[in-house]
Design a protein that fits this description.
Blueprint (H helix, E strand, L loop, with lengths): L7 E5 L2 E8 L2 E6 L5 H16 L5 H6 L2 H14 L9 H6 L11 H13 L4 H20 L24 H10 L5 H10 L3 H5 L6 E2 L4 E4 L10 E3 L5 H21 L8 E2 L2 E2 L4 H10 L8 H13 L4 H8 L5 H5 L5 H14 L17 H4 L3 H4 L32
Antiparallel strand pairs: 1-2, 2-3, 4-5, 5-6, 7-8
Helix pairs in contact: 3-6, 5-6, 8-10, 8-12, 12-13
Length: about 400
């Protein structure tokens, strides 16, 4: 083991150590054994790791599941995440002293199978494995691990399909309590989240500018957002009605209510039982409040708003929402199919409209040329006098006026 570049083993006291070089740096590591053969075996393992271009080293071998969990918790705190990492079930399965290197793809696969067999939803298990993957990423970026291992993940097919139509929303509003009706209608128009509307204050309503705004840090993404309610007559009327009701409540109770949507001066409290009952009576059982948000996104796309503009209004951070919600512009589909029909030669040509021309001067006076006072006889066909915008055009464009 004394060949040049192959490292060496040596003894300090009664414990055998190894020494090797990797990428210009010299490393010494204790075998924690008084047996020379164990030190030689450790050196051979390190040389094999270096042969594959990655050195695990003692630091990685000492990293445990408890260390991974701690890294994720600290990352959540640094980024001011409101939720806690889903490490509860993971901590029950992996003991705290489990080495991070022992959490391989096969081990995670076994964990996934067990969780699914216990009745856990695939999306829940996917979030748990994702949190574990985040822990490995943090450990790799911090230099505690030489690489981030591959972790399998269950496939999730839970694209949301619930949407509301205008007629369904109108029926639903009649089944809801009076204090909930403006809240639900505003959610359908703006597509904002329940918490964003629930925490909306009158100070965030700019009557002069005609916008309602969400301040930075109050949204899920942390970014500010606004909605120009002045150009939406129904939303503008809804906010004015809500302001009148709030002012009346403040005068009667000699108090100030900061909330736009409230019940007797208090923030709106969401009752799932009442919501489900109202949906059943309205003929839309099983719908979720979040379906109003999906409907708002689809409505924006249907009227021709771009994906970027739609996301800026509703507060979606990535365009994956359109894939998740299966939202496709019907206008784009119609245009695409028209082009496909043209390619196949299946486009029906609109027949040209032929206008019968009169031969007598009296009949010609009813034409455009006759009205313009042209004295010379027209050799070409005479066009009957009518507004130019009413003339039929096979191309869909307005005809050019005659010289």
């Amino acid at each position: 083991m004394k060949a040049r570049g192959m490292g060496r083993v040596f003894r300090r006291g009664s414990v055998w150590w190894i020494q090797y070089s990797f990428r210009g740096g010299q490393h010494r590591e204790s075998s924690q054994s008084t047996v020379r053969a164990k030190a030689v075996s450790l050196l051979r393992r390190r040389l094999a790791e270096m042969g594959h271009g990655r050195l695990v080293g003692p630091q990685a071998e000492r990293l445990t599941f408890a260390d991974l969990e701690r890294m994720v918790i600290e990352d959540y705190e640094i980024n001011a995440r409101k939720s806690a990492p889903p490490f509860g079930r993971l901590a029950e399965y992996f003991p705290a002293h489990t080495r991070a290197l022992d959490i391989t793809a096969d081990v995670v696969k076994t964990y996934i199978q067990k969780r699914l067999a216990d009745g856990a939803a695939a999306a829940t298990v996917k979030n748990e494995v994702g949190a574990l993957g985040r822990a490995f990423t943090l450990a790799y970026r911090s230099g505690h691990l030489p690489h981030r291992p591959y972790l399998p993940s269950p496939r999730v097919s839970n694209a949301r399909t619930g949407f509301f139509t205008d007629a369904e929303v109108k029926r639903l509003l009649t089944q809801l309590p009076a204090y909930m009706q403006p809240f639900v209608e505003a959610a359908y128009i703006t597509g904002w989240r329940r918490g964003e509307l629930r925490n909306l204050r009158w100070s965030q309503v700019d009557w002069e500018g005609g916008t309602i705004r969400l301040e930075r840090g109050t949204t899920k993404s942390g970014e500010p957002r606004s909605f120009p309610f002045a150009v939406h007559p129904r939303l503008a009327a809804l906010l004015r009605e809500q302001r009148e009701r709030t002012s009346e409540f403040e005068r009667e109770n000699d108090t100030v209510c900061p909330w736009v949507f409230h019940r007797s001066g208090h923030q709106v409290t969401w009752y799932y039982d009442g919501w489900r009952t109202a949906c059943t009576k309205a003929g839309v059982p099983g719908r979720l409040l979040h379906d109003l948000r999906r409907s708002a996104v689809r409505n924006l796309v249907r009227v021709g708003a771009s994906e970027q503009v739609s996301m800026s209004i509703t507060g979606h951070k990535t365009r994956s929402v359109f894939d998740c919600y299966h939202i496709v512009s019907s206008t784009d589909q119609i245009d695409a199919v028209r082009k496909l029909a043209a390619l196949h030669g299946a486009v029906a040509q609109e027949p040209r409209k032929v206008v019968a021309m009169g031969d007598t001067p009296a009949e010609r006076r009813g034409t455009v040329r006759g009205q313009l006072g042209r004295s010379r006889s027209a050799k070409g066909p005479q066009v009957p006098a009518m507004p130019w915008r009413e003339l039929a055009s096979p191309t869909g464009f307005e005809p050019v006026p005659p010289p």
